[in-house]
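User: Hi! I'm working on a homework problem where we have to compare a predicted structure to a textbook description. Could you give me the structure for the chain below?
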Amino acid sequence: MTVVYLLVYLWALGHLAPGLGGYSVSVVDAPLANLLRSALGPFSFTPIATVQIGPATYLFSLNSILGLGLAALVGLNLGLTYLAWIQPKACGLGRSSTGVVASIPAVLSGTACCGPVVLIVFGVQATGTLLTTFQFLLPLSALLLVGSLVLVSRQLDPLQIDGVR
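Assistant: Happy to help. Predicted structure tokens:
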């Protein structure tokens, strides 16, 4: 799921797209100096390298590193959610929907990159005020994902996991 999330994140940002075939790598002049250069808004950075591998074109930027961090958090949250679902005793839970509740921050993180696309798909006419709130979704999503990991992992008892003794 981590890899899938990262690929969807990069595709939603436009940093992963169909290619024209062929193989090439190109890097901008002074890549380290351009790595932190903002592109279209907060938490959107200018690509510093282009990699064409046959049917795909990938643009590397700081967005790739942020996306990898979010994807890792999503993967960890989904792993703990799965553990809470199949072995609730290990997480100090009764048989309830807490595992599903723990995955809500993982779902919210998708709106950080895909929110504007979702609004377009559903045809909702968003005002400028609504669109400005999207700049806060990426840090909020990361904070919620970390918070979810901390809350669930504090209750985790490794000795209660079936097969670990």
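For your comparison, note the following. The first strand starts at residue 16 and ends at 18. Helices lie at 2-13, 31-34, 62-86, 98-102, 104-122, 128-132, 137-155. Good luck with the assignment!
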